[in-house]
Amino acid sequence: MKEAYRVFLLLSLCLSLSACIASSANTCPAYLETKCGDDTSGDWKGEFFPGIPKIKYEGPSSKNPLSYKWYNAEEVVLGKKMKDWFRFSVAFWHTFRGTGADPFGAPTKSWPWEDGTNSIAMAKRRMRAHFEFMDKLGVNRWCFHDRDIAPDAKTLAETNANLDEVVELAKELQKGTDIIPLWGTAQLFMHPRYMHGGATSSELGVYAYAAAQVKKAMEVTHYLGGENYVFWGGREGYQTLLNTDMKRELDHLAAFLQAAVDYKKKIGFNGILLIEPKPQEPTKHQYDWDAATSFAFLQKYGLTGEFKLNIECNHATLSGHSCHHELETARINGLLGNIDANTGDPQIGWDTDQFLTDISEATLVMLSVVRNGGLAPGGFNFDAKLRRESTDVEDMFIAHISGMDTLARGLRNVAKLIEDGSLGELVRKRYQSFDSELGALIEAGKGDFETLEKKAMEWGEPTVSSAKQELAEMIFQSAL
Ligand code: XUL
Ligand code: CO
C-alpha cells in the first residue's frame, strides 16, 4: 500500500481516540503489509521511568505534582480503606498504546522505550514499562484488550501464540505482587474483518472468528487472575437501518453473550461479565446505547443475573445523560459493576477520553458508588488518555495522580454529605406522605383505583410541597 494512502487510512480510522491505539504509524497494524514485527532488539535495560519516585500521599498542602494530595490508599473513609473504595486500574491501551494521533494529525508521543514496531519484543518491553508504571503509581490493577498487549499475526493460531507469549511475561511480572487485571476484553473493532461488527456481523465467518477471539481473551483474563470481563460493542450496531436486520443482529448478539456465559462457567472463570454501554462512535447507533437499553436487552434475552454494567462517564454524556444518571440507573437495577472513569469536553462532540478533574462530577459519581456499597469485584478503570499536546513521560503520572485525587476528593465530599445528613433528610421528607398506611399499600402494589378515588374525594385538593432544588444544590455545594 502506498505510504500516503496508508497514513490517510490510519488517520481516518482514528476518529475515536480509543480506536487509534494500534492504528497509528507508530504501532504498525499487522493487517497492513509492512515490515512491522521484524524487530529483534533485546530487553530494555534499567528503569523505564528514571527520576520518577514511588508516588506518596503528601496531603492537600503539598505542591509536589508527583504526590497524592487527597488519595491516601490506607486511610479509612466511610468504613473502608480508600484503596478498597476505588480499586484503581490503569488502561493499557491509552497509557501504553496511545500515540497522540487524532483524525487530523500524526502521533505526537515518542516514549523512550518505543522502537516504532509492533513486534513481540516491543510488546514485552512495553509490558515491563507498564508494570514499573503501576508499581510507582501504587495502583494494583490493569485493563487490557487482547490486541493491545500482543500483536496480530497472519493466522488466529499464530496470533494466539503471540498473546500467550506476552501473557506469560505479564504473569511472571504479577508474581510476588498484588497486581491483577481488573478486566480483560477482546478488541473486536480495529481489524477490517469487524467492519460490520463481531457478534452482529452479517458474516457467519466473522461471528465465529469473534467467538474464538472472545474465548481466548476470557481464557487469558482468567489465567492472569482477572476479576471481570468486558464487552464493549464498538461495532455492534448499524450505520443505516436500510441494510440492517436489527432483530436478527440482536438475536445473534444475545446468542453470542449466552455462549460467553456458558464458556465462562465451563472454564471455572468466576469473573463478572460486564456490558459497557455507548450510544455511538464508531457506529452511528450502537445496540448497547445506555444503561436502560442494555438492561432491557438483558431482560428480553434472559441474561440478567449473568451480566452487570461498566458505566463510562463520557459514554453517558454522549447518550444525552449524565454520568450520575447512568450510575443510578445501573445501581437501582442491581447492575452497577464497574466504572470507566473519564470525562468529555463540552465543546467537542466525540469521545475525548479525558481524565476526570471536575470535583463536583466526582462527588456525584462517588454518591452512587457509596450508595452501591462500593464496586468490588469491579473498580475504577482510567479509560482516559493524555491530551495530544502532553508529551512528557511524567505527564502519564500527573494525569493518573490528578484523576485519582479528584475521585478521592469526591469520596471525602460524600463522607461530609453523609455526616451532615441534611441532603438525605431533604429527600426523606420529600416522600414522607408515602410513609403512611395508604403509601405502604401502594408500594406493596395493592393501591387499587377505587380506594384511591375514595381518598381523593375525601381529602379534596392535595397540598403540594416545594421540591427544594436550590436548597439541595446549596447543601451539595457546601460539601465540595
Ligand atoms: C471505547 C471504550 C473502550 C472499552 C473497551 O469508547 O470505552 O475502550 O472500554 O473496549
Ligand atoms: Co471504556
Automatic annotation (TrEMBL):
GO terms for molecular function: metal ion binding; xylose isomerase activity. InterPro entries: Xyl_isomerase-like_sf, Xylose_isom_bac, Xylose_isomerase. GO terms for biological process: D-xylose metabolic process. PROSITE patterns: PROKAR_LIPOPROTEIN, XYLOSE_ISOMERASE. Residues 1-24 form the signal peptide. It is an enzyme of class 5 (isomerase). The keyword Metal-binding applies. Its EC number is 5.3.1.5. It catalyses: alpha-D-xylose = alpha-D-xylulofuranose. The keyword DNA repair does not apply. Keywords: Carbohydrate metabolism, Isomerase, Metal-binding, Signal, Xylose metabolism. Belongs to the xylose isomerase family. NCBIfam families: PRK05474.1, xylose_isom_A. This is Xylose isomerase. It comes from Rhynchospora pubera.
